[in-house]
Amino acid sequence: MGSVRQPTLADSICDLRSRKIKRTFFTQINTLLDQAPIIGVIKKHCTKGKNASGKPSYSRLLLFKTSLLQTWYGLSDHEVEDRVNDSISFSYFCG
């Protein structure tokens, strides 16, 4: 059985730097992204209601932002869901 390597201080610093870069990027995107026209286009092409189990559907803007994350990071539906639930910066970006 292989041993599990404990993270070093350098690993922690690099992880924090990476999180800060992502958060800065996502903050800039949220600032630059004029949501009103995007929501208008989405409303024209997407009806909102209930899903098959009767639960309210997700917001259109949330689905748009998760699609951006999927494109930028090459993630599947399940992977982007895991990342949004696990990553503070992804969660912050999606609102």
Automatic annotation (TrEMBL):
Transposase InsH N-terminal domain residues: 18-95
Species this chain originates from: hydrothermal vent metagenome
Pfam families hit by this protein: DUF772
Record's protein name: Mobile element protein
Matches recorded under InterPro entries: Transposase_InsH_N
